[in-house]
Amino acid sequence: MTHPTGWGLIGASNVAREWIIDAIRAQPGSEVRAVLSSSAERGAAFARDNDIAWHTTSLDDLLSRPDIDAVYVSTNNRLHFEQTIAAARAGKHVLCEKPLALSVEDANEMVRVCRACDVVLGTNHHLRNAATHIAIHGMIEDGRVGRLIGGRVFHANYLAAALQGWRVNDQGGGVILDSTIHDIDTLRFLFDQDPISVFAMTQSGRLAQDGIEDGIMAVLRFPDDMLVQIHGGYTVPYAPGGVEIMGERGVIIGRDCMSQRPIGTVSVRDGDGEREIPLKHHNLYHRALELFTDAIHGGGLPAATGEDGVASLAIALALRESARTGREIGVDLP
Q1: Residues contacting 18, CB < 8 A, separation 6+
Q2: Do residues 312 and 184 make contact, with C-beta atoms less than 8 angstroms apart?
Q3: Please, which of 53, 180, 290, 329 could form a disulfide with 232 given CB 3.0 to 4.6 Å?
C-alpha cells in the first residue's frame, strides 16, 4: 500500500547519504524533500549531490514546512535531544540516530514528548533488521541450542578517516555510544530481555584522546546467570564481526553479521557437526524504513522504538560508569 510521506533530513551526514536516502526512496510514495545542515555550503552540496530540492540552515524553517511528515535526525549526538523535541512539537514523526541523547533523563523526555504529541519515535538500530540476527533470534526463541549459557559479540573494526571527527574528540562520542550501543541493542533483540548488570574496561589513545574510549571489553550479566562478552573497537583493521550464542545443546554462530551491508552467515554447531542455516538477505535500512513508514501510518511499530533507544542508552552509560569506576554496575531500566 502506498503511503505518501515527505521527509526532511536533519543533518547532512554520511549515513544519510550512504543508506537512509536510498531506504526512504525505496518506500512507495516517500520523498526526501529537504535537508538541514549547519553549513550552508555543505547543505547545498549535499542537496545537489543527492537530488534534494531544498536545503536550509534553519531548523524552524524545515519544521514549518507542511509537506514534511517525518524527519531523520543524524547530527552530532549532543543535538539529538533538542532537535527531536522541536520536531515532535511541530507534529513531525522522528527517526533518530543512536544514541537518542547523552542522558537517560533526556532520552525519556524525548519518548514522553513524542507520545504526548502523537508522533512516532524510532531509534536507528539497524542490526536488528539483518536477516542473520532475525534468524538467530528465531533459533533462540525455538530453543534450538537449549538453555542459554553465554555468548560473545565481536565488533571491532577500524574507523574510517572520514568519520574520525567528533566520534573521537568529543565527550558525546566514543566507541561505546557510537558502536557498542548497537551491540547492546542487538543482544536485547536476540534475547528479548535486558542485562541486570555490566562490567567494562576501555582503551583510549590510538585514535581517541583525553579519555574518550576507542576500544572496549565488556561483560553483561543477563537473567538466569547468562554472561555475554563484547569486544568493540575503532582501531582494529581486518577483524571479522560476529556473534556466538552458547547453549546446553550447541552453539549458534553468526559470522560477518555486524555490518550495515546485507551479508553474513549463520551456523549451528552441535554433536552432529556444524551446519549453515539458509538465509535470504535483504537491505537492513529498507526494512527499517518500511517498518517505520508503516508505523507512522498506523501499522505496527518501528523496528527499534524510542523505548528501545532509552534502554540501549541506559546500558551503554552503565558500561561507561563501570569503566570509570572499575565496578560492576547494576542496570536499572525505566
Answers
A1: none
A2: yes
A3: 180
Nearest-angstrom CA–CA distance, 307 and 217: 26
| Cα 55 to Cα 37: distance, rounded to the nearest angstrom | 8
Cα 36 → chain centroid: 21
213-218: average pLDDT: 95
CATH topology of domain 127-280+314-330: Dihydrodipicolinate Reductase; domain 2 (3.30.360)
Cis before 66 (ω within 30): no
Beta strands 250-255 and 242-247: pairing type? antiparallel
Report the alpha-carbon distance of residue 146 to residue 151 in Å, rounded: 13
Q: Contact, 133 vs 190, CB < 8 A? A: yes
Entry pTM: 0.95
What topology does CATH give the domain 5-126+285-301? Rossmann fold (3.40.50)
Question: Reduced to 3 DSSP states, what percent helix, strand and coil does the chain have, rounded to the nearest 5?
Answer: 35, 25, 35
Mean pLDDT, residues 111-134 taken together: 98
**Strands, DSSP E only, in the chain?**
5-10, 30-36, 55-56, 70-73, 93-96, 121-123, 148-156, 197-203, 215-222, 226-233, 242-247, 250-255, 265-270, 273-276, 329-330
